[in-house]
Design goal:
Length: 154
């Protein structure tokens, strides 16, 4: 009888812990991991990469970005067609569903960073402000510090 009571009590404790963990809101509705900019020598356009996690309960849309370090920042996707790779501007931005993530990586989604106003060096930190729409829980402007990495980095 004591064993059965103990097992019931343990089951209730575990159920309560699972409920509590699942109901706790994350610290921030959007988090950004591994933000980096690949350095291109000679002042040419650069690319920004990261992973965006939407912890909110609504879809959000990355609608743009800006930086004092670049004259223009655009959301692009690399596309291979007929054996050729080209970049496709994402004029409507990028939707990230509730609980989902978007991975910006080489040869795929990236921020196209054009008209640099500085000559960054490897290890520098560059602020890029990401602009979001779609959820009141997500700030409209999220400043992110991107680390400048060698062009050979992934």
């Amino acid at each position: 009888m004591k064993l059965a009571s103990g097992l019931v009590a343990l089951a209730l404790l575990i159920a309560g812990a699972v409920w509590w963990v699942s109901s706790v809101e994350p610290e921030a509705p959007v988090t950004i991991e591994n933000p980096r900019v690949r350095l291109v020598p000679g002042g040419g356009p650069m690319a920004g990469y990261m992973e965006i996690h939407n912890h909110s309960d609504q879809a959000i849309r990355l609608v743009g970005a800006r930086s004092e370090h670049f004259g223009r920042v655009m959301i692009h996707r690399s596309i291979v067609a007929d054996g050729r790779t080209r970049m496709q501007h994402q004029p409507d931005g990028l939707e990230i569903r509730a609980g989902q993530s978007a991975l910006f990586k080489p040869r795929d989604l990236h921020l196209m960073l054009m008209q640099p106003t500085i000559s960054p060096e490897i290890g520098d930190q560059l602020e890029i402000v990401l602009r979001f729409e779609g959820s009141q829980a997500v700030p409209a402007a999220v400043p992110v510090m991107f680390t400048v990495v060698p062009i050979t980095s992934s």
